[in-house]
Amino acid sequence: MRRSDLALVCLLGLAVLAATAVAPAFVEARPAYEIPVHYTVDDDAVEGDDGEAWNRAPAATVPLSSAGANVPGGDDTTVTEASVAVVRTEDRLHVRVSWADPSRNVSNDRVRSFADAVAVQFPANASNRPPIAMGSTDNPVNVWYWSGANASEELLAGGPGTTTRFPDSTLSTNATYRDGRWTVTFSRALDGASANRTTVPTDRDLDVAIAVWNGGNMERSGQKAASEWYYLALGPGPGGPPYEVILWTVAGIAIVATTLVTIQGVRRTRGA
Ligand code: HEM
Question: What band does 239 get if pLDDT is binned at 50, 70 and 90?
Fold first, then answer.
């Protein structure tokens, strides 16, 4: 190989190496609808909404729109997105939902006053995706619900209008309102412990949906901003940066190899 060819190949090699390092930052790092899950063994690291583990849990932005329920004002909702981060420890799942709301409403006391609220929906049976509108009779959902007025509840629903409360909720919640933003953290044992209660799998993904009510806009019950089905990346599989780096490296090697073969081909043709 001539020295000029060698220099070209080296330059190309360097360019590919640089692209391998930089390119993943420019592409969407995860599949649509995936919410990454950060794993830590240390329960204390998830304390509140700013424990150290949250710094390592990449948040996903989840778009919200009116749930479309056939209730008065059903289409009148204000919250358009929520930021969702998830941490799993050995025994518990922690879900942190944060969204912008210019007014803090925590009272249901007066006739026309409603509290801000948020909910996280899972299939009761983790391996069977239910209808997004709160499941169906034969495929129900669990809902982790927090309201500024009533603290938290674990609910079971088999379609709109069927919401019932589990009598022995084991859900922990923590809520803060700071600089026009709610941050609510839910946490519960992975094990569902009783019938119709979602057991969070540790070896496969789990469907999840989010809903937010702006009490200041008199949002309640069916009048809320809800997401589509997303999934928590609890199972093995692609999704994280290591996978992408491998892909870019393989692509880089392929480019260099093709260039080498082409240069050799051209040289042989010229030499012929
Ligand atoms: C996207 C389609 C959806 C539709 C059409 C819908 C419809 C409704 C309706 C009609 C109600 C009032 C009757 C009842 O209490 O069951 C309601 C309440 C409720 N929904 Fe939904 N829903 C949807 C999605 C969701 C999602 C994704 C969640 C949770 C993430 C959720 C959580 C709740 C909760 C917690 C209540 C009771 C709220 C309260 O007591 O004020 N819904 N929904």
Answer: very low
* Residue 82 neighbours by CB under 8 Å, 6+ apart: 61, 62, 64, 97, 98, 99, 118, 210, 212, 227
Which residue CA neighbors atom 42 of ligand 1 most closely?
Answer: 134
User: Is 199's C-beta closer than 6 angstroms to any atom of ligand 1?
Assistant: no
Which of 178, 168, 121, 110 is closest to 146 using CA atoms?
Answer: 121
- The structure tokens 């995936």 sit at 34
Of 130, 171, 135, nearest in space to 150 by CA:
171
- d(Cα 231, Cα 86) in Å, to the nearest integer? 11
Mean pLDDT, rounded, for 225-244: 77
Task: Quote the DSSP letter at residue 243.
Answer: H
Which of 178, 268, 256, 176 minimizes the C-alpha distance to 8? 256
Q: What band does 4 get if pLDDT is binned at 50, 70 and 90?
A: low
Does 131 contact ligand 1 (Cβ within 6 A)? no
pLDDT band at 223, cuts 50/70/90? very high
Please tell me if the CB atom of residue 210 comes closer than 6 angstroms to any atom of ligand 1. Answer: yes
| Residue 145 Cβ < 6 Å to ligand 1 | yes
ipTM above threshold 0.90 = yes
Question: CB of 211 closer than 6 A to ligand 1?
Answer: yes
Tell me the pTM: 0.81
Residue of 75, 156, 221, 231 with the most ligand 1 atoms within 8 Å of its CB, for mutation: 221
